[in-house]
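Example record used in the benchmark description.
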Amino acid sequence: MPGAVWAIGEVADGSVTRLSTEVATVARRLAADAGREAVGVVVAADATGPAAALAAFVGRVVAIGVPIAEERPAAAVAAARIAALARVEQPAWLIVGATPDGRDVAGMLAASLDLGVLANAVDVRWDAGNGPVVDAAVLGGRVLTTSDFTAGRGIILLAPNVVTAEPADAPGRVEAAQEMDVADLPAVTVVEHVSAAAQALSIEEASVIVAGGRGVGGPEGFRVVEELAELLGGAVGATRAAVDAGWIDYAQQVGQTGKTVRPALYLALGISGAIQHRVGMQAAETIIAVNRDPDAPLAEYADLFGVGDLFEVGPALAAEIRARRG
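Model output (structure tokens):
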């Protein structure tokens, strides 16, 4: 359907990502307000399963199976197929998750389809006179801008964890894309694989995050953080200062230059709470912090702020949790 709203699904480890379901939710709502069709598009080596999962959120999903997706840059393979399909179906707006691959896909689509991009969207709504209106967080979240597309059509990069994914009332249908004549980029030669230990639970998916900052003092200090995270069934997070010091891996960084999270509980230990960190975790339902400095910025927006030494409070809290569990 010309003028549809597309939700571009991203696949990781064979499954559609949570951010993709958030993208699909926004696309469905926007399409309903605009009187358009919401369409999901999934590109993967085996797109059937991920497409079926995305169909829980939109009425129609196009599954594009590409065997070479496992050996070529994912963003390049996806963008080439999506662009080819878009030239045929002419969607009005494409919504993409603001992940590293999503940003690459949006950039390639913008160049291929000659479309503008509105990035870091934290809210998307319909205006009958202007089309989609996008609120975006800029300057580390200190400023909120409001923009629309001067050319009508365009691409929206949706920030993670700014909307709760909600399935549609009824699942949509999945259809396989027809054959496309696409010129692929040359195969990439892989010269080295670097494996890093991963948490069982990623911070983007966790409902509980226990995070440490400069106040933990070093890698050893993160043992308190890790112990509490394990007891609470959560994930370990960190500030940029802790990551830059080499105390913990970048994958755990929360904040402006890290990841945006939205857990039910965010327990901050030894974190001052500067604006660069705040923009990544302020959407948490409950924020509890422990810091020796009563004037730390985090005290202004934490739901509960305890003044104390994390190396005293942390073990005491762990002991209390164990005691209550019997």
